[in-house]
Amino acid sequence: MNYPRKPMKKILLSLSLLLLTLLFATNTLAASGKLEQDDGPYHVIMQTNPENFMANQAGTMTMIITNKATGQPVTGAKVMMSKSTMMSSNAGSNSGNMDGMTMSSSMDTQGGTAMQEQSNMGGMTMNSGSYMMEGMTFNQPGQWNQAITISSPLGDSTVNFPITVGKSGPNLVLIGSVAGVVVIVGLLAAMLKRKKN
User: Which keywords does this chain's UniProt record carry (predicted)?
Assistant: First the structure.
């Protein structure tokens, strides 16, 4: 009766590795979204974490700014984030622009929030010319516009990025991963119990 157990162990090991691979691949793909845009002397890459913002859930936005002509990072710039405006709304009467984003830091007198230049974050080295805003929260789902104003010796420029905010709900990746782990642990426990008998 040892013959059936060896294939079962191989199947369980293969399933475990497949589940872990899927879990890491999904988390890596969902880790950050990315949009690129040229404006004036700048090439700007916007990255968000998580990739898809959800209503009333905090997220992080990073701007990577380079000189469009040379590709060199733009460091020491003043990067201001305006309040996000909603371009469309699910509520019929609120179809115009409206404020709806809150941030962990306060707005200054110019009606914007300075993004902080980053060289490293939590021991992880970041690209030169990276500017970050943490704790962004949108109050409802829909299409939003985010304006970023950049000032440096290269000149002043404003870039606008579209942001789609979804309805918050259950994390299906996490639920599926937990269910998969529970199934594998149950199968392993059943195998060990059978082996003892």
Answer: Membrane, Signal, Transmembrane, Transmembrane helix
